[in-house]
From TrEMBL, chain B:
Alphabetical list of InterPro entries matching this protein: MetI-like, MetI-like_sf
UniProt membrane topology term: Multi-pass membrane protein
Lineage: Bacteria, Bacillati, Actinomycetota, Actinomycetes, Kitasatosporales
Domain ABC transmembrane type-1: 82-289
Organism whose genome encodes this protein: Streptacidiphilus cavernicola
Name this polypeptide is given: ABC transporter permease
Principal location listed in the UniProt entry: membrane
Automatic annotation (TrEMBL), chain C:
Superkingdom classification of source: Bacteria
Compartments reported by the entry: Cell inner membrane; Cell membrane
Organism: Streptacidiphilus cavernicola
Transmembrane segments: 30-53, 93-113, 122-147, 159-178, 199-221, 264-282
Keywords: Cell inner membrane, Cell membrane, Membrane, Transmembrane, Transmembrane helix, Transport
CDD domains: TM_PBP2 (cd06261)
Coiled coil: none
A Pfam family hit: BPD_transp_1
Descriptive protein name: ABC transporter permease
Cell inner membrane listed as a keyword: yes
Broad class of where this protein is predominantly found: membrane
Classification via Gene3D superfamilies: MetI-like
Topology in membrane: Multi-pass membrane protein
The family this protein is said to belong to: Belongs to the binding-protein-dependent transport system permease family.
């Protein structure tokens, strides 16, 4: 298993690191799970988060990621498993005793309190002295650039500012772990990009350990040191952004990571360097995925990203032909949606001119086509890679 | 002044200017309803107001006098009805609202049977004042089940007098008023987004701190409205004060005074004057509570600021 | 290569839920609140139960239960208070009030929900007043006026008096309901070529129907139970059930309490049926909510 070295120190170029390392040594989730009656929302999950790490829980809605986050916060009791913080079991503690910071999806700012009182709330609950409270609130408000707005009520702030208050309120306690539940989903596209880099900056400058829940793979890839991909309450894959991007563990992760071309084919030949699969008028030579050995006659799902699928060079082996149907202009390249003779849709990119109706020979580099062996019955819920 | 141009030359048509301010033919739809309220509420009210200032002798028409008001305030029995009304309405609404808060706070989350419980609470509203009064007479009466039980438990040796007095009316105001106050409090409380309490708990607040600093301040404006409405209901107490109370003594409330003047003594001027006094007193309380309320935070109670 | 943790659950879901930690910590606070509620319901049950039992009892003195059972109090009450005629009047008054208040108030609430015009606040204030002012306080002047126009004592007078709180009530029930219907739906219908009449019959009425139904049922329940206004304005032939009931109690001594109780049970039974119907369409809090300002 490959992981990136956790970032325990603030990057040197930010200069003004507010605090040094993280408050957290290690947080261990041991087989935590949660069931609602007969429905299991979260299957046993094992995860170790090290201090200073930014971990993202990624998956489509209803995959159990919010359940996992709420269980960790103590807002939902666990069905099984334990949570250990630096050797101390905390899963039986109520949320107010765990001391985690949480940023809610709808921010959950107290509407009747000013920004300053919102941020100071946690310190007040813990009985921190007045002078100390003022000092810490001022420091955090400066960090999130809200010093000017301190006296306002949340209703008078813009979405991005409310977001910042929510973050400030969660981190002023200097919590060992900050939980963020889709914090950017209520913002518009431009603001989302801006707040994304803000969150990463705050994470580094304040030396936080963050667990971040999102359904947006781009957000997760750009923010996190490590990603946990969930599918129907189970972990599909844990790895670094590069890991997941280059080597998705199964077709779910692949589809999530932008492998838009998923072709159900049959293996016709396999050797040490790779395998060939064909069917539906197409023949693809590609790398096997994972340790699974491919044997001729086996069903596979071939996954290729649109940016790896291109128009074949003249002397190159094409995987098949397709007729361009939709051509979209995306800056330097064209995104083309083409239909094969069998009716399969291919998504590819082209740097040359393509017009709807053109017949295209399509090719892919061998190492860019991933093969995922399929179960005999194509059941979308059980597409797994034999470990 | 410059040369007066014909106004139509560069001003848009009147119809357009009105439409800009939201006045168009759709507004005609308001007329039937508004006219009905004016004719059936405002006109009689103003008529009553004018009538109340007519000389009490009734023979002279068109005079102006404070006779009816003077009569009300100089007659100790009538004057005391104000105090008796307040001494019933204020405790009743305070009890109803005060008890509603902890109960609805405890029941703010969904649980099995909650809808049934809410439906059961509607029952006393359906009973109507008359059945409630009848039931109170028999249940709390000297030979009723309540006194039977007290006797059985050894809490009272002789029957406790709970009806035909102040207690009886207070009981009836609680039985019919508590569900009302509870349901209103409950709906205000469920308007407070649950994530606010969750947020407070992740910030280290225990249940009392969450209630004290988050839920209660957000609920307070709603509670004041609930108090106002409960008060209005209790203030106008009439049938139960007649039936389970002591209408000629301790529960001679102002509505009985007004009713007796108008429909038993057929002194319409006096009845209308009493009704006006009643309205003014009630409006004073409402305005006082509303003023107090406007000084509190009253905005969204949702998750977003 | 990443490790794949896509493994099956270690135990069956059923076994897991058995091990769920459920803190059933019953604190004194919980006991107190549940106790208060239970006490309230116990008293309520007593109040209703006594009346119900008494109406079926032959005679009831200082004992827990009446001595012997009978249903003849019901037939007594029916003839003694001419309940057939009273119920007829009650139904007539109630339905007229529902119908007229809907016809008058629904268009008004549409205009109030859709337009922001100068004087809108004033108009809302006009509609709030009849809800805020106690019925007795405006009922006495209203009765005076009705006597002046010789309408008091007739069914017309009772209906007119009951319209006063009903019209604002429909307005305040319907306005939020109309506000949550997207005005772009009407715009879309017009873009599809529908004229005003078609928009009204094909779009607005079907969309407003649930709200009108709810408002209508609420007015029905409230008019059925409205004592003060009907009491002040009705005559011998225009009494509704609740007024007859009150008069019977207040002139007690002549009539047996059992037949009064029988009438009270008839009243409550009818009200309960109406409410059961109402609760199928509206939420319990709507029954009490007036305007929130």
């Amino acid at each position: 298993m490959s992981t990136v070295t956790p970032m325990t120190t603030a990057e040197s170029d930010t200069g003004a690191a507010v605090r040094p390392g993280s408050q957290l040594g290690e947080l261990e989730l041991r087989g935590i799970s949660r069931a609602y009656g007969a429905h299991t929302a979260l299957h046993p999950l094992d995860l170790t988060i090290r201090g200073g790490e930014f971990v993202a829980l990624l998956g489509p809605s209803g995959c159990g990621k919010t359940t996992a986050l709420n269980s960790l916060a103590g807002l939902l009791p666990l069905t099984a498993g334990e949570i250990v913080l630096d050797g101390r079991r905390i899963d039986t503690l109520p949320p107010e005793k765990r001391g985690f910071g949480m940023v809610f999806q709808n921010y959950a700012l107290f509407p009747h309190l000013t920004v300053r009182a919102n941020v100071a709330f946690g310190l007040k609950m813990r009985g921190v002295g007045k002078a100390e409270t003022v000092r810490r609130v001022d420091a955090v408000l400066a960090l999130v650039h809200l010093t000017e707005q301190a006296h306002k009520h949340p209703g008078q702030l813009s979405g991005g500012q409310q977001q910042r208050v929510a973050i400030a309120r969660a981190i002023v306690m200097e919590p060992p772990l900050v939980l963020m539940d889709e914090p950017l989903s209520n913002l518009d596209a431009a603001l989302r990009l801006e707040m994304r880099s803000e969150i990463r900056r705050i994470h580094q400058e304040f030396g936080l350990t963050t667990l971040y829940v999102t359904h947006d793979q781009e957000e997760a890839l750009s923010l996190a040191d490590r990603l946990v991909v969930l599918h129907e309450g189970r972990v599909s894959q844990i790895g670094t952004p590069a890991d997941l991007y280059e080597n998705p563990a199964n077709t779910h992760v692949a589809a999530f990571m932008g492998y838009r071309n998923l072709l159900p084919l049959t293996v016709t030949g396999a050797d040490a360097r790779g395998a060939t699969a064909s069917g539906r008028g197409l023949t693809v030579r590609g790398a096997g995925s994972g340790a699974g050995k491919l044997t001729p006659g086996q069903s596979v799902m071939v996954a290729v990203r649109p940016e790896d699928l291109r128009i074949a060079e003249t002397d190159e082996q094409a995987l098949g032909e397709a007729v361009a149907e939709v051509v979209e202009y995306h800056g330097r390249v064209l995104h083309v949606e083409a239909v094969t003779r069998e009716g399969d849709r291919l998504h590819l990119t082209s740097s040359g001119q393509v017009r709807p109706g053109d017949v295209l020979s399509v090719a892919v580099d061998t190492e860019r086509a991933l093969f995922f062996p399929q179960a005999a019955v194509p059941d979308p819920a059980s597409q797994e890679v034999p470990a | 002044m410059t040369v007066a141009l014909p106004p139509t030359a560069h001003r848009p048509a009147l119809r357009h200017r009105l439409a800009e301010r939201g006045v168009d033919r759709t507004l005609l739809l308001v007329l039937p309803g508004a006219l009905a309220v004016v004719a059936l509420f405002c006109y009689p009210f103003l008529y009553g107001l004018q009538l109340s200032f007519q000389p009490t002798s009734g023979a002279t028409q068109g005079g102006f006098s404070f006779g009816a008001y003077h009569a009300f305030f100089s007659e100790p029995f009538a004057r005391k009805s104000i105090w008796q009304t307040f001494s019933l309405a204020v405790p009743a609404s305070l009890i109803n609202v005060g008890v509603s808060v902890p109960i609805s706070y405890r029941m703010r989350r969904d649980f099995r049977g909650k809808r049934l419980l809410l439906a059961l609470l509607v029952v006393p509203i359906t009973l109507g004042t008359v059945l409630t009064a009848e039931g109170i007479l028999e249940f709390y009466g000297p030979a009723g089940w309540f006194n039977h039980t007290l006797n059985l438990l050894g809490l009272a040796s002789s029957p406790v007098q709970l009806t035909m007095n102040y207690t009886g009316v207070l009981l009836s105001l609680i039985i019919s008023g508590f569900p009302f106050a509870y349901l209103l409090t409950h709906s205000y409380l469920s308007g407070i987004h649950p994530s606010l309490e969750k947020a407070a708990s992740t910030l280290g607040a225990d249940w009392w701190q969450r209630f004290r600093h988050i839920t209660f301040p957000l609920l307070l404006p709603g509670l004041m409205t609930t108090f106002c409405l409960s008060f209005v209901m209790a203030f106008a107490v009439f049938p139960s004060a007649m039936m389970v109370g002591d209408p000629d003594g301790k529960t001679h409330v102002i509505s009985i005074e007004a009713y007796e003047a108008a429909l038993e003594h057929f002194d319409y001027a006096q009845g209308c004057a009493d009704a006006m006094i009643m309205t003014v007193l009630m409006l004073v309380v409402i305005v006082a509570v509303t003023t107090l309320r406007s000084r509190l935070y009253s905005g969204s109670t949702g998750g977003k600021g | 290569m990443s490790v794949v943790l896509d493994r099956p659950a270690t135990a069956a879901p059923g076994a897991e839920s058995g091990a769920r930690r459920r803190r059933i910590a019953i604190r004194p606070g919980a006991w107190l609140t549940w106790g208060a509620l239970a006490f309230f319901f116990l008293n309520l049950l007593g109040v209703i139960g006594t009346v119900l039992l008494n109406s079926f009892g032959r005679s009831w003195f200082r004992s827990w239960l009446p001595g012997g059972w009978t249903t003849h109090w019901y037939s007594d009450a029916w003839t003694e208070f001419s309940l057939g005629q009273v119920l007829g009047t009650t139904v007539e008054v109630t339905f007229l009030v529902v119908l007229i208040s809907l016809v008058l108030a629904v268009p008004a609430s549409y205009a109030l929900a859709r337009r922001a015009f100068p004087g809108r606040k004033l108009l809302l204030g006009l509609f709030v007043l009849p809800i805020l002012v106690p019925p007795i306080a405006y009922g006495i002047p209203l009765a005076t006026v009705l006597y002046k126009f010789h309408l008091a004592g007739s069914v017309t007078g009772v209906v007119l008096a009951n319209l006063v709180p009903s019209i604002p009530f429909v307005v305040f029930t319907m306005t939020p309901f109309i506000e949550q219907i997207d005005p772009r739906i009407e715009a879309a219908a017009r873009m599809c070529g529908a004229g005003t009449r078609t928009v009204l019959t094909r779009i607005l009425v079907p969309l407003l129907l649930p709200g009108m139904l709810a408002a209508g049922i609420l007015v029905l329940v409230r008019t059925f139970g409205m004592f003060e206004l009907t009491f002040l304005t009705s005559g011998p032939t225009s009494q509704t059930l609740i007024v007859t009931l009150f008069s019977a109690v207040n002139s007690a001594g002549i009539r047996s309490t059992q037949s009064i109780d029988a009438m009270a049970v008839i009243y409550t039974g009818t009200m309960a049926v109406l409410l059961l119907i109402a609760l199928r369409f509206v939420n319990p809090t709507q029954l009490v909510a007036r305007s929130s300002d």
